[in-house]
Amino acid sequence: MSEQQRQATVQRMEQAGLVAIIRASSNQGLVDTCRALVEGGVTVAEITMTTPGALEAIRTARQELGDSCLIGVGSVLDSTTVDQAVEAGAEFVVSPVFKPEVVQASHKHGKPVLAGALTPTEILAAFEAGSDLVKVFPANHFGPQYFKDVLAPMPHLKLTPTGGVNLNTVNDWFAAGARCLGVGSALVKKDLIAAQDWVGLTDLASQFVDAVKASRQ
């Protein structure tokens, strides 16, 4: 059953098209941030382990938001963190690098994993080791053309960029073959969170959702 659940989660991420990456300097307002994103139509969010109190934030967000938002954990570097994050309620795991132990631990819990890779060799290795989507990171240095170049000889790969995703590039990334997009500071703006401008964040989220819809039509 966990295999089916895992695939269903991946499908939900691909259909949503956006994964909001929440990398904050404190855990204040993290649940409000998630709530504002959901109200704008962004229903998948990743809380990074570099955020103070990340595990507690994941646990609280899952309790308060339920199924309205798919909450995952980011910046995961080892299997122990996978275990802790899943116990806290994380529904998917994201890493900036490819480590087999992270893939194995995630799958042991029936959770999808997005391993990080950059070169074609790393990307293929991560995918063949079971990474459900491969997070190309940092993608901003190469841009959408790099996805086209990598996918030309290996069209079976499932890639998602982190870095270089903003309102102006959404269409380019999907046109290049991205399955979904990881969006950090262009969406989860620190100044909006610091000012507790949840209306502003909801508005920005809806702009991203509209951009995804437009690019897929």
TrEMBL record:
Pfam families: Aldolase. InterPro entries: Aldlse_KDPG_KHG, Aldolase_TIM. The keyword Transcription does not apply. Pathway: Carbohydrate acid metabolism. Keywords: Carbohydrate metabolism, Lyase. Homotrimer. Belongs to the KHG/KDPG aldolase family. This is Bifunctional 4-hydroxy-2-oxoglutarate aldolase/2-dehydro-3-deoxy-phosphogluconate aldolase. It comes from Natronomicrosphaera hydrolytica. The lineage of its organism: Bacteria, Pseudomonadati, Planctomycetota, Phycisphaerae, Phycisphaerales.
